[in-house]
Design a protein that fits this description.
The complex is a heterotrimer of chains A (307), B (246) and C (267). With 246 residues, chain B is an all-alpha fold. Chain B contains nine helices and no strands. Chain B has one domain (2-239). Chain C is mainly alpha-helical and 267 residues long. The chains are: A alpha/beta (307), B mainly alpha (246), C mainly alpha (267).
Chain lengths: 307, 246, 267
């Protein structure tokens, strides 16, 4: 299905970065639709951060081009475009000798935003406690610094957010909060969010679209639904007489103490259970099973899904 | 344990330009002093004494303290980066060893400077065919005592750099300390003020030889000041909360 | 949805409010250096220098000595010791605040690299202008306190320009080293070396002094000395503004080259 150019938030064509003989990003074609959460997935060292830096113009591509919010990025228009982009790249930068508010004040002034934005974002990331506000950022925990970095990226509610491992260092409740926030942003403000991560489970919970990069190349790109659709779906059955049940059910495969049959709808499942019962075979367990995302990932990409 | 910590400190300085700086800057000082000595042989009495004066007078007043300050800032900067200080303080060594190792490293850097001064002084004296007997005993005393005096500056600057957490400011403080040392010497406290001890020891003014009382006072006070700095730093490291990044 | 789309595109292509102007950006630099006590360090070093000058000036060659030129003759030597290192401390601290906080990757999405460079350059130069102004005022006060003739305003102005020009060269060089090497050791060693070679070179002929930037404190001086036996006489000579032109050219070259390299530097 052809996508209208105005519906694309980020597009790259043949984006490449080499340092001498080493190619860290190779011929990357990335398409991020507007108003989605795009998960940019890949192991450490795959080229995720370098790609994001090229999108921001912090690193000059060796070849290829990138367009952000429909505008091809050039050195001349770069800052104008980036005024509509919130970023958190690698570990969050900060002035450790200043408080959170003082840090955000600098970002606010540079972006030309109203003072109220600081209170808004501090509230969103839960750094608005008075005792926290008095502390210098150098005394913050890793998770608090991460929240501050996210707050700085959120200021001004930009149409596009580029977040590099945003839940890094957060405690479980913090991870849950930030994931929920990221998922809500497209509905709340029409924001497009590009989240990079090396954790498949994290991308699975947050993203609508996913791009998988490995060893400098994009190996798969598409919607999360189509990624799941690649997975197999079946029923696992345990009965009082598996051997007899296997004979009765054509195409059943024995798998240890279980029988595997193709997934069917509820009506067909009901007929199967009644059929087995009439033959005197009792149903002990009947479970719907899917191939895990890790397995789908492995089949599609041939790489381990862990870091 | 101190040996292990010191070895670790030297590992941290691998591939660092700091060694070259400590070797070359004092040598440059001696070279310029040498040129000045040669250019002024009309007014100066030729001899090893005046050659020593010309080569060392400025470096011990201002520039050695500032150079040592820069080195001490460098030694602490490594720990002030990232969470290195957390990891350092979690290593199974005492706070005293941690500071002691940095002091030893700073001392070695200072020794490199003094060695550079010594080698250049002797070599230039020979090349210039300097008249008179080479005052081996005197020069050895000035170098050894000067080195002791420099340890006071190393210890103090390590404490300042540990606490201040700026790279540049302690270097400014070191230069100011050196000048304060000169002022203290002019006011008669050259045997007492910490930053004056290296100046007194190197006897760059060379008006009179160092008296035994002066030698003893400089040596004892050097040890005392270094000990005080070590105790203070160890207490700070042991008692106060470690904040890795500020 | 379409309307939000249109707003987004407009915001993307035209920006919101434009890039921050120079004056507000300079104000931001001040905020970044809060709690860094840079002014305190600068004033401390200046105070030590001026105390030393005051001590020297109070020891007059003879009673009734009123020639203010003793101050203008001595100060370049003291400037060579203190001001190159102080300039490097100022510039290095100003640049290091971003390196320590890993802020470049964030700042450079909101400010052009060139703008950031020149704003920091202006800030360091501005701070040194304040230091030199304070020093000039204290010089004038010292003349009065020491029973010397008042220093003419014209000579004070010439002194200010000469001293400031050398300081700006030093801040430019320190900034180039700080931003391009991301290390503070290099600018500090250069500061120490400039102080050292500057003072030492003043004992050499002018041909040697011209090669040492920090010797220009003395080269740009309008006061010389003539020693006849035990009598020291201070002499005025015309301002050698040719040296100023050379210094400004060198400062411009260092700064422009460094700005260009910084703009091209990748993160």
């Amino acid at each position: 299905m052809a996508i209208n150019a105005s519906e694309i938030a980020v597009a790259t064509r043949g984006l490449t970065k080499s340092y001498g003989d080493e190619t860290v990003v190779s011929n990357l074609d990335m398409t991020v639709p507007r108003g989605v959460v795009y998960g940019f997935l890949g192991p450490n060292g795959a080229g995720k951060s370098t790609t994001m830096k090229m999108l921001l113009g912090l690193v000059h591509p060796t070849d290829g081009q990138a367009s952000v919010l429909g505008v091809p990025m050039t050195p001349d228009n770069r800052l104008t475009v980036l005024r509509s982009v919130g970023t958190l790249i690698e570990s969050p930068g900060c002035y450790p000798h200043l408080t959170a508010r003082e840090n955000l004040e600098i970002t606010r002034k540079l972006r030309g935003l109203p003072v109220s934005e600081i209170d808004d974002v501090l509230h969103v990331v839960r750094l608005d406690d008075p005792s926290v506000q008095r502390k210098k950022v150098g005394h913050f925990s890793l998770g608090m610094k991460q929240r501050l970095g996210i707050a700085a990226a959120l200021m001004g509610k930009p149409p596009l957010l580029l977040l590099d491992e945003p839940t890094n260092g957060l405690d479980p409740s913090g991870i849950h909060e930030i994931r929920a926030l990221i998922k809500r942003l497209p509905q709340m403000f029409g924001t497009t969010v590009v989240v990079s991560s090396h954790l498949l489970s994290e991308i699975d919970q947050m993203a609508d679209h996913v791009g998988i990069i490995n060893k400098s190349r994009m190996v798969w790109q598409g919607s999360m639904a189509s990624l799941h659709a690649h997975g197999k779906h079946w029923f696992a059955l345990r009965t009082t007489d598996n051997a007899l049940a296997a004979q009765a059910l054509g195409g059943a495969v024995t798998d240890g103490g279980e029988l595997r049959i193709k997934a069917v709808d509820d009506a067909a499942a009901g007929r199967i259970t009644l059929g087995l019962a009439r033959q005197g075979i009792g149903i002990v367990r009947l479970e719907s099973r899917e191939e895990s995302l890790e397995d789908i990932f492995l089949h599609l990409t041939g790489i381990e899904a862990t870091l | 344990m101190l040996g292990l910590c010191t070895h670790a400190e030297f590992m941290k300085l691998r591939h660092s330009p700091i060694w070259l700086v400590y070797l070359l800057l004092p040598a440059a000082s001696c070279f310029i002093g040498c040129a000045n000595y040669t250019a002024n042989l009309g007014t100066l009495t030729p001899g090893w004494t005046n050659l020593w004066t010309q080569q060392t007078i400025f470096i011990c007043y201002f520039f050695l303290p500032a150079l040592l300050g820069a080195g001490c800032s460098y030694l602490w900067r490594l720990e002030h980066t990232g969470s290195n200080w957390n990891e350092l303080m979690c290593s199974p060594v005492s706070a005293g060893c941690i500071f002691g190792a940095k002091l030893v490293t700073g001392a070695v850097l200072s020794a490199v400077s003094f060695a550079s001064i010594a080698v250049f002084y002797v070599a230039s004296g020979l090349v210039l065919d300097t008249p008179g007997t080479f005052p081996a005993a005197q020069i050895a005393l000035y170098l050894w005592l000067g080195f002791l005096g420099s340890l006071v500056i190393v210890a103090l600057q390590l404490v300042i750099s540990m606490l201040v957490r700026s790279f540049a400011a302690p270097v400014g403080i070191a230069l100011t300390g050196g000048v304060a040392g000169l002022v203290a010497t002019m006011m008669g406290a050259g045997n007492v003020f910490p930053y004056s001890l290296v100046q007194t020891a190197m006897n760059s003014n060379n008006l009179v030889d160092l008296s035994p009382a002066t030698i003893l006072q400089v040596a004892v006070l050097s040890v005392v000041y270094v000990a005080i700095a070590c105790v203070f730093a160890t207490r700070c490291l042991s008692r106060y909360d470690i904040v890795a990044t500020m | 949805m379409g309307e939000r789309h249109a707003r987004t595109t407009k915001a993307a292509t035209q920006g919101v409010g434009g890039e921050l102007g120079f004056l507000p950006a300079l104000g931001l630099e001040t905020r970044k250096l809060r709690h860094k006590h840079l002014l305190l360090v600068a004033i401390g070093m200046l105070a030590m220098q001026l105390l030393w000058l005051a001590y020297v000036v109070l020891v007059h060659p003879s009673d009734g000595f009123t020639d203010y030129r003793i101050l203008l003759f001595q100060i370049p030597l003291l400037n060579a010791v203190f001001l190159p290192l102080l300039s490097c401390v100022v510039s290095s601290t100003e640049c290091d605040v971003e390196t320590r906080g890993n802020m470049f990757k964030s700042l450079l999405t909101m400010q052009r690299a060139g703008a950031l460079f020149w704003i920091k350059w202006l800030f360091s130069a501005g701070l040194m202008a304040a230091v030199v102004t304070l020093q000039t005022v204290v010089l004038a006060i010292l003349a009065g306190a020491g029973g010397l003739d008042a220093i003419p305003a014209g000579e004070l102005a010439v002194y200010w320009v000469s001293t400031f020009a050398v300081c700006v060269f030093c801040t430019s060089l320190a900034q180039a080293l700080s931003l391009l090497t991301r290390s503070q050791f290099a600018p500090m060693v250069v500061g120490v070396a400039l102080s050292f070679f500057g003072l030492f070179s003043m004992y050499f002929p002018e041909s040697v002094m011209r090669l040492v930037p920090s010797a220009y404190f003395a080269l740009l001086s309008t006061v010389g000395v003539s020693v006849q036996g035990k009598t020291v006489m201070y002499l005025s000579h015309p301002w050698p503004w040719g040296y100023l032109v050379a210094l400004l050219a060198a400062t411009t070259a260092v700064s422009v080259l460094a700005a260009h390299a910084f703009k091209r530097k990748e993160l």
